[in-house]
Amino acid sequence: MKKFILSAMAMFAMTAAINAQSLVFEIDGVEYESGSTFTYEKKFLQEDMGYKKNAEIAMKLKNVSSTPITFKFKNAGDLISAPEGYERNFQICTDMCYMGDDIPEFTIEANSYLMAYGVTAPASLHINNLDGILGDVEVRYEASNVNDPSDVYTFNVVCKFIDKAAIYDAEVINNMFISQNGNGKVTFNYNFKDAARRYLNIVNVTGQVVARYEISDMEGAFEVPATLGKGMYIYSIEQNGKKVAAHKFIVK
C-alpha cells in the first residue's frame, strides 16, 4: 500500500512538472501565471490625438524554470471581444515592436527575466485605439516553449477604454459606451446592474437639450432617432432624478 501511495505521489509530481508553465508575465511587480486575466483602464479625452488613446501595458517576461528556455509568441494577440466599431490592431514589444504573426523567438535564462543589453528588457503590450472607441476590449496572448509543446502560456488583457470626462456611477452601470453609424446616427450601448426608469439626455455645447429618451430595460443598444449635426455633445443618464453617467462625444 505504501509503495502504491509513493508511486502515485511520484506520478503526480511528474505530471505537475510536465504541465508546469515556465513563463510568467510580471506587471507592476505582480506575477501572473498562465490563464490569468489582467484588467487595465485607459482614460482619454475624445479630442486627444489618436496615439494618446492607445493602451500600453508595461511588463517583464520571466522564465521561472531552472533551465534556459526559448519562447515563441503565437502572434501579437487574438481579439476575444470588443465594442462595435473597434478594429483589431495589437502589438507586442520586446527588443522591437511587432504586429501580426511576425514575432521572433526569444530566449530567457533560468530563473531570470528577458534581457537586452545587460538589463531587463522593457517589454510591453499595445492595444491600439486610434478611433477612440469606448468600451471593453479583451485580447488573448499565447506563448509556447519552442522545445516543449506542452509548455504553453496564455494570458488575457481586458482593457477598459473610458473617457476622462465621464461621470460614471459604478454601482449603477456595468458598461456604457457609444458607437457611430455615420450620417449623424449614434447608438448608445448600455448594461445596468438593475432595472429602473432611466432617461437619456443629449445636450449641445450651448446647454440646450436636443433630445431626451426613456430607457426602461437593463441591457441593450439604443439608436438615437434624431440625426445630430456635426459637433460636440454631452450625453447623460438620469435615474430617480440623479445623473449617474455623463460624458462628451463628437459627431463627425
Please provide a written account of the structure:
It is a single chain. By secondary structure, the chain is mostly beta strands. Helices cover 7% and strands 56% of the residues. The protein contains 1 helix and 23 strands. Strands 1, 2, 4, 7, 8, 10 and 13 form a 7-stranded antiparallel beta sheet that branches. A hairpin with a 4-residue loop joins strand 19 and strand 20. The longest helix is centred in the first third of the chain and has 18 residues. The N terminus is likely disordered.
Shape: elongated
The largest β sheet comes out as: 7 strands, antiparallel
N-to-C order of helices and strands: HEEEEEEEEEEEEEEEEEEEEEEE
Number of strands: 23
Mean pLDDT comes to 85
List the total number of helices. Answer: 1
Report the sheet-strand fraction: over 45%
Low-confidence stretches: 1-18
Distance between the termini: 76 Å
Supply Rg: 23 Å
Query: Helix content range of the residues, please?
Result: under 10%
Give the structural class.
mainly beta
